[in-house]
């Protein structure tokens, strides 16, 4: 059976074609403004030279942020599951994955079968994403592919005290005017991003065998900084950017396998340049009573069913991307509101991590 | 500032060198007042540390509290919206800081963010302020990151049909107001409330903020000068305390 996985990221679209035993072909192209056209173009590139037609592909799983818009996909799977699955296929020993993409960065923890145990995603702040590196490359007038090498070769290291892409850009310009070398500026920025990524990794805990996936994993300067920061040798796939698409293709091959959402801790929230804001729901402890839904003054919670599991508490979709604006953190909230989401929860399933003093 | 109050003021765009910017501003202010010679200078702000002719440097929050207390004595909470920071200061009845919160790590919601958005929409700050009053709706702009907000605004412009520009501006303001409110909630608010900093000159934004705060907001004349006035007041106090040589 021939199957395909397609990963429509914010900047690049990746696709992998699999048969029963091995990878037949792969493709990487830019994500255009229309995901439908992009996905069709990627499929064409994928099939080129294989002698296969689109109808020969029996099952397709789409992932990535544009996954809903793939017309020929049989199923959608989140890119987090796909990255874990893809990396697990290449390196079964890996338990911690750092996925560095075009507009977000994720730290993923998985089990021995490549199932996601825990993850943290930062998609609310451009700091530390591919977009950040693009902005900096543009300011310094260096091609994107060249920045990692320049950072690697530099001996100096200019400390950047910001991770905000807007502030970093103006800081970089002012260093350039003062005569600092591009390499030293890049080295400092790579260092700042590596530190930030390390913080994400620490939150899911790092194990010895860890891997980096996503387009930034091809940046040698970044990989070196992460090697220094973690003190570990990252396992890198031949093409780390393809891991999500590979995982999607593996899911396609195993269609129908039921996944179990119980026992999973889900962290809702984000880390932006002002701090970390996460609400964790322990799905094993949550009985879906819904008391948290009624006590929260900002109506952050909801109880809903996912993938046919038991109904569980979760943070409402609309609240997820502005959590720090809606919730002042448990400490501040509990001072004035005695009946709160912690006190009403029988199983202690909800916890807040608010760290805005970074 | 002299014995009878403010003599003159000057606003200069900060350049790479804090020293030369500070010098230019001081020279302008002195020229306007027709003064020269030995003056006692207290510096404050992001570049306040590197000024050679400054006798003392003070925290922005201290200066803001003092300056606003001088201009508007009834104020207990100051929201300062600067180019790169959002600061909320609670002021006591003697013009001292009782609590504060400062956001200077992220460009979302700051003056730079607003400037960047104005540039993107090809509007001047004044045009932006007037345009927003015509808005019937607010475009959805998350506003957790200035870079991502830019792509959100671009997609609003290219939507079919395109989102009206006044709604986009209202959405931009709304995202900034959210950030300010989050900071305000953390520090806590007491009446009266004043808004200072360069962004306070934007009437459209301030009226939307007032709506959210649920209370009238006071804006001192030349809101961007509040910190400098505070610094001058501290300089005057210091001079009085110093023994005459």
What does this entry look like structurally?
The complex is a heterodimer of chains A (about 350) and B (about 240). In chain A, about 35% of the residues lie in helices and about 25% in strands. By secondary structure, chain A is an alpha+beta fold. Chain A folds into 3 domains: about 1-85 and about 245-255, ATPase, nucleotide binding domain (Nucleotidyltransferase, domain 5, 2-Layer Sandwich); about 90-235, 2-Layer Sandwich (Nucleotidyltransferase, domain 5); about 265-355, Alpha-Beta Plaits, CATH 3.30.70. In chain A, the strands form 4 sheets. Chain A has a 5-stranded mixed β-sheet with strand order 3-2-1-4-5. In chain A, helix 4 crosses helix 7 and helix 6 crosses helix 7 (about 220-230). Chain B has about 240 residues and is an alpha/beta fold. Chain B has 2 domains: about 1-70 and about 225-245, ATPase, nucleotide binding domain (Nucleotidyltransferase, domain 5, 2-Layer Sandwich); about 105-220, ATPase, nucleotide binding domain (Nucleotidyltransferase, domain 5, 2-Layer Sandwich), CATH 3.30.420.40. Chain B is about 45% helix and about 10% strand. Chain B is built from 8 helices and 7 strands; from the N terminus they run αββαβββααααβαβα. A 5-stranded mixed β-sheet of chain B has the order 5-4-3-6-7, with helices on both faces. In chain B, strands 1-2 form a two-stranded parallel ribbon. The longest helix of chain B has 23 residues, at about 165-185. Chain B is globular and about 70 Å long. The model of chain B has no long low-confidence stretch (mean pLDDT about 85). The chains are: A alpha+beta (about 350), B alpha/beta (about 240).
Number of domains of chain A: 3
Q: What is the CA–CA distance across the termini of chain A?
A: 51 Å
Within the CATH hierarchy, at the fold level, what is the topology of the largest domain in chain A? Nucleotidyltransferase, domain 5
What series of H and E elements makes up the topology of chain B? HEEHEEEHHHHEHEH
What is the name of the CATH class of the largest domain in chain A? Alpha Beta
The quaternary state of the protein chains shown equals heterodimer
CATH domain topology of the largest domain in chain B: Nucleotidyltransferase, domain 5
Main sheet attributes: strand count, strand direction, barrel closure of chain B: 5 strands, mixed
Distance between the termini of chain B: 22 Å
Shape assignment of chain B: globular
Low-confidence stretches of chain A: 256-263
Secondary structure tally: strands of chain B: 7
């Amino acid at each position: 059976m021939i199957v395909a996985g397609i990963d429509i990221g914010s900047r690049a679209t990746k696709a992998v074609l699999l048969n029963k035993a091995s990878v037949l072909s792969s493709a990487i192209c830019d994500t255009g403004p229309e995901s439908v056209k992009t996905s069709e173009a990627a499929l064409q590139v994928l099939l080129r030279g294989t002698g296969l037609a689109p109808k020969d592909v029996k099952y397709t799983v789409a992932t990535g942020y544009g996954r809903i818009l793939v017309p020929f996909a049989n199923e959608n799977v989140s890119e987090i599951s796909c990255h874990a699955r893809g990396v697990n296929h290449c390196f079964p020993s890996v338990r911690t994955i750092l996925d560095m993409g075009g507009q977000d960065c994720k730290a993923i923890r998985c089990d021995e079968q490549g199932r996601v145990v825990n993850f943290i995603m930062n998609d609310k702040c451009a700091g530390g994403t591919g977009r950040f590196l693009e902005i900096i490359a543009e300011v310094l007038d260096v091609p994107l592919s060249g920045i990692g090498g320049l950072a690697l070769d530099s001996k100096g290291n200019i400390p950047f005290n910001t991770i905000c892409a807007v502030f970093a850009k103006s800081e970089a310009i002012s260093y350039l005017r003062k005569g600092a070398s591009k390499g030293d500026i890049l080295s400092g920025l790579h260092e700042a991003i590596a530190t930030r990524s390390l913080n994400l990794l620490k939150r899911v805990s790092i194990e010895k065998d860890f891997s980096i996936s996503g387009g930034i994993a091809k940046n040698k300067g970044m990989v070196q900084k992460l090697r220094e920061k973690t003190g570990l040798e990252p396992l890198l796939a031949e093409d780390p950017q393809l891991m999500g698409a590979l995982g999607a293709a593996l899911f396609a091959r195993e269609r129908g396998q039921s996944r179990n959402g119980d026992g999973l801790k889900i962290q809702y929230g984000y880390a932006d340049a002002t701090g970390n804001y996460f609400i964790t729901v322990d799905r094993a402890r949550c009985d879906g009573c819904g008391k948290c839904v009624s006590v929260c003054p900002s109506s952050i919670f909801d109880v809903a069913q996912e993938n046919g599991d038991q109904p569980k508490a979760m943070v409402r979709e609309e609240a997820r991307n502005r959590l720090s604006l809606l919730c002042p953190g448990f400490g501040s909230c509990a001072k004035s509101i005695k009946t709160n989401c912690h006190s009403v929860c029988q199983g202690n399933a909800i916890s807040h991590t608010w760290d805005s003093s970074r | 500032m002299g014995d009878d109050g403010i003599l003159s003021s000057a606003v200069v765009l900060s350049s790479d060198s804090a020293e030369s910017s500070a010098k230019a501003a001081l020279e302008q202010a002195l020229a306007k007042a027709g003064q020269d010679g030995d003056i006692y200078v207290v510096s404050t702000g992001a570049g306040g540390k590197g000024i050679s002719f400054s006798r003392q440097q003070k925290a922005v929050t201290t200066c803001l509290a003092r300056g606003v207390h001088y201009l508007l004595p009834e104020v207990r909470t100051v929201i300062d919206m600067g180019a790169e920071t959002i600061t909320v200061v609670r002021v006591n009845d003697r013009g001292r800081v009782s609590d504060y919160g400062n956001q200077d790590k992220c460009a979302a919601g700051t003056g730079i963010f607003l400037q960047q958005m104005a540039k993107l929409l090809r509007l001047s700050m004044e045009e932006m302020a007037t345009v927003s009053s015509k808005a019937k709706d607010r475009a959805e702009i998350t506003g957790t990151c200035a870079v991502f907000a830019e792509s959100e605004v671009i997609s609003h412009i290219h939507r079919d049909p395109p989102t009206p520009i006044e709604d986009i501006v209202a959405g931009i303001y709304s995202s900034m107001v959210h950030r300010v409110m989050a900071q305000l909630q953390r520090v806590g608010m007491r009446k009266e409330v004043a808004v200072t900093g360069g962004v306070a000159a934007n009437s459209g934004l301030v009226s939307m903020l007032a709506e959210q705060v649920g209370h009238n907001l006071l804006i001192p004349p030349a809101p961007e000068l509040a910190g400098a006035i505070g610094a001058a007041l501290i300089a005057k106090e210091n001079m009085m305390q110093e023994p005459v040589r």
